[in-house]
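Researcher: Good morning. I'm working through a list of sequences from a screen, and I'd like to move beyond sequence-only analysis. For each chain I'm collecting a predicted structure so we can compare shapes side by side. This is the next one on the list. No need for commentary yet; just the structure.
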Amino acid sequence: MSNENGMAPGQVIKVLVGVVVFLVVAIWLLAKLATSGYNVDAEVMTKEAVASRLKPVGEAKASDAPPGMRTGEQVYKGICISCHGTGLAGAPKFGDTAAWGSRIAKGWDMLTQHALQGFNAMPAKGGATDLSDDEVKRAVAYMGNSAGGKFTEPPVGGAGGAAAAADPAVVGKKIYDSVCMACHAAGIAGAPKFGDKAAWAVRLKPGLDEVVKIGIKGLNAMPAKGGYTGSDAEFRSAVEYMVNNSK
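Model: Good morning. Structure tokens for this chain:
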């Protein structure tokens, strides 16, 4: 039996099935076309993974050691590992002798120059602008040596080594040069200028201990410890350094 259009029921069903299959295939092709070039991995799209990738280079803290006194390992684990730990953006992976071999062959001076000034996708000092030149060099030596290099890290604390590093005056100067100088060198935002006897005399009237307490908490435009992240004792050494040079 045929319907009024002359088609048997079986033929009608086949046509309907064919139309449905065609629509399904068409929708799939359109979806494929719209998402071409996107390979979404659920693991790399977690909130934690996205936040990690969006984090500015160098935002991490190398360690709680005073500025200028961090070892190569401390700088690597706090800063450099973000790229060199996995070989991100072409960075030679930590311990990869093949990747580091050609770089080590260029010599110490070239390696440290690239690290300090930036090279390809890596910004100057890996983006951690608070690092001293010697701290960057120590990190370069630490990473290079992990892959067969024979570099010597610049000593912590300069020529005086550990003894100099333990000297409060040396620690205070390091912290001042790396943190406090930003405001106290020019007297920015009302900060008593380094070496200005009159400005410091007024602030020292309550006594040095009170000045240190105020500095630790922060006052007016000055954040807690002036933004320094180390210990209170280290911060005190910076205050003493400024005071002693302003008498």
